[in-house]
Design goal:
- This is Phage tail assembly chaperone-like domain-containing protein.
- It comes from Alteromonas australica.
- InterPro entries: Phage_tail_APC.
- The protein has 99 residues and is an alpha+beta fold.
- It contains two helices and four strands, in the order ββααββ.
- A two-stranded antiparallel sheet has the order 1-2.
């Protein structure tokens, strides 16, 4: 059961309410936010993986070496990946829509 503390009595004991009108948010708002977060999750995970791969190849860009064309292209593609419109196949987990 969900409760909200709406105040305190004279002995500093919490006054709790189970009335949904006291929660300050509707179920529709909670549901909409959950859907928003679920829809954003694949892109969040993609960014984490992208950041990991960029960090993994940072040594390529050290000042005492020159990156190959393929390395430069790969790192740029990683940086550009979130500007594309990738989608995740729910059945296979395959990422599509990335060039």
């Amino acid at each position: 059961m969900f409760v909200r503390i709406t105040g305190y009595d004279s002995e500093d004991i919490a006054i709790e309410s189970t009335d949904p009108n006291d929660f300050g948010v509707t179920w529709a708002q909670v549901s909409a936010k959950r859907t928003e977060l679920e829809n954003a999750e694949p892109m969040r995970v993609l960014r984490l993986e992208r950041d990991r791969r960029i960090a993994e190849t940072d040594w390529w860009a050290l000042g005492d070496r020159t990156m190959t064309s393929a390395q430069t292209t790969y790192r740029q593609a990683l940086r550009d990946i979130t500007t594309q419109t990738p989608s995740l196949d729910a059945n296979t987990g395959a990422l599509t829509g990335i060039t």
